[in-house]
């Protein structure tokens, strides 16, 4: 039996929950969980904000742990290896996206916490292809958020072929944004951070931003009209997107990774006349995750985390829900 924590209904507190995972499949890996990040997506699933939750729901998709068992078809990890697991717990491995290496775009990808029991427990199972071996010297206690927040901001840098000479901007310095600033600075870019928080303005500079602008000041935003080759938005609230688009250089790219539920209201002509583009993306493939982890270790990029023990799980979730997280929350089976 696997011992976990589950929400039994929407907006419910997490409660101890046990389930029998059955026999280990030939292509499966069972992970003994050491740490698991608490992501805003976990909160959205607990509260059924996206209308896709089913209960009992065991959240947790930023898993770091040790391989406890492997199926006979798994050969890239061994029992005892330190590994991580992110948003996806499996892929079909036969569609065009999978065969092209874009596993994260697989239409039938299995999510770790949608119709599947996640990492808020002592163990979790997933298809081997989605389990990534951790590089030597990575900090285990802070590695979990890289498997969701980290790859979410890193993947578009790779997919877009972002140049290290690019002038870039990050909207929102939070769980995603503080990682985006670190990755973009290490990539070689000139980084501007948009934030309304005085504390985060100081911290963004410490994390690597070259410039800070107040995201609530239209005049400050207008002062950088036509400057940025790339803008990544990490916020989940509606902003004046047309104003931000005017800060893109010709052929500049605006990229959403924060989940904004309201429809986007966009004027076409600024896009058309400047040949600007807008896109969004979900997490990244196992190969890109591996690249990101190596890059993070090489450049000493770490999520800023607050650690809670698993028996403090509801306290940790409330901490996140009340906007007090700084910047990521991680659960540990042995709080330091």
SSE order and pairing:
Layout: E1 2-7, E2 14-19, E3 28-38, H1 40-46, E4 63-70, E5 82-85, E6 88-90, H2 96-99, E7 110-111, E8 123-127, E9 131-133, H3 140-143, H4 149-159, E10 167-171, H5 177-187, E11 190-195, H6 198-207, E12 211-214, H7 218-222, E13 228-233, H8 241-245, E14 248-256, H9 268-274, E15 277-280, H10 286-298, E16 305-309, H11 313-321, E17 328-332
Parallel strand pairs: 10-11, 10-13, 11-12, 13-14, 14-15, 16-17
Antiparallel strand pairs: 1-2, 3-4, 3-8, 3-17, 4-5, 5-9, 6-7
Helix pairs in contact: 4-5
- The CATH topology annotation of the largest domain reads as Quinone Oxidoreductase, Chain A, domain 1
Taking the sheet with the most strands, its summary is: 7 strands, mixed
State the end-to-end CA separation: 27 Å
Helix residue percentage: 25-40%
* SS elements, strand count: 17
Shape: globular
CATH class of the largest domain: Alpha Beta
Encode the helix/strand succession as letters: EEEHEEEHEEEHHEHEHEHEHEHEHEHE
Uncertain ranges: none
CATH architecture of the largest domain, by name, is Alpha-Beta Complex
The CATH superfamily of the largest domain turns out to be: Medium-chain alcohol dehydrogenases, catalytic domain
Count of structural domains: 2
Mean pLDDT value: 96
Please state the structural category.
alpha/beta
Beta fraction: 25-35%
Radius of gyration: 20 Å
Number of helices: 11
């Amino acid at each position: 039996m696997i011992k976990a924590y589950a929400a039994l209904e929407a907006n419910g507190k997490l409660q101890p929950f046990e389930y029998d995972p059955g026999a280990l499949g030939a292509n499966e890996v069972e992970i003994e969980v050491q740490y698991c990040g608490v992501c805003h997506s976990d909160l959205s699933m607990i509260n059924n904000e996206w209308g896709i939750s089913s209960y009992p729901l065991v959240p947790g998709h930023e898993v770091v742990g040790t391989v406890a068992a492997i199926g006979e078809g798994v050969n890239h990890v061994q029992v005892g290896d330190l590994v991580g697991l992110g948003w996806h717990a499996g892929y079909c491995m036969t569609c065009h996206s999978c065969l092209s290496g874009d596993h994260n775009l697989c239409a039938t990808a299995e999510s770790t916490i949608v119709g599947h029991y996640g990492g808020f427990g002592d163990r979790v199972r997933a298809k081997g292809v989605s389990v990534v071996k951790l590089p030597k010297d990575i900090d285990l206690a802070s590695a979990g958020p890289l498997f969701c927040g980290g790859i979410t901001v890193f993947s578009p840098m790779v997919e877009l072929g972002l140049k290290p000479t690019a002038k870039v901007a990050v909207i929102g310095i939070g769980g995603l944004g503080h990682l985006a600033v670190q990755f973009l600075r290490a990539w070689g870019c000139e980084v501007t951070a948009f934030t309304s928080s005085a504390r985060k303005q100081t911290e963004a500079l410490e994390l690597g931003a070259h410039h800070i602008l107040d995201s609530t000041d239209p005049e400050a935003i207008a002062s950088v009209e036509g400057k940025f080759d790339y803008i990544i938005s990490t916020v989940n609230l509606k902003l004046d997107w047309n104003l931000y688009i005017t800060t893109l250089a010709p052929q500049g790219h605006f990229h959403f990774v924060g989940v904004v539920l309201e429809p986007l209201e966009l004027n076409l002509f600024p896009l058309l006349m400047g040949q600007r583009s807008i896109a969004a993306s979900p997490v990244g493939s196992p190969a890109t995750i591996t690249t990101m982890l190596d890059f993070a270790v090489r450049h000493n990029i770490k999520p800023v985390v607050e650690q809670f023990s698993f028996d403090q799980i509801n306290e940790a979730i409330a901490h996140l829900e009340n906007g007090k997280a700084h910047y990521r929350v991680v659960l540990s089976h042995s709080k330091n």
